[in-house]
Amino acid sequence: MDLTSQRIAILGAGRSGQAAAALARHLGGIVTVFDDAPAERLSAHLERLRQADLTAVIGSDATALEVRPGQWDLVIISPGIDESWPLPLKFTSVGVPLMGETEFAWRHCLDPLIAITG
Known about the structure:
Elements: E1 7-11, H1 15-26, E2 30-35, H2 43-51, E3 55-58, H3 59-63, E4 74-77, H4 86-92, E5 98-100, H5 101-107
Parallel strand pairs: 1-2, 1-4, 2-3, 4-5
């Protein structure tokens, strides 16, 4: 999957979101991380995003986000975020393809993979 110059939205600023953001950027994507949690709850995560030079939109800025058709090419959602919550729906309601973080990582894994779910 070539992401060169594609606009990629990552939903969730936690560890999974950070890993997906790093991979998407490595693959050439223009990446923005979104999380509607308040900044106080995300301080450690935000510091890691800053160190990785990744853009983050958080808290009320993420909640107030307006997504227009054609604005984003792909949205990658962290496992802990429900697809029916308002933030993911802002993207999918205008036709942005949604992919789970696990599937996104799997598509780029070169080694055999064993998945354990519960």
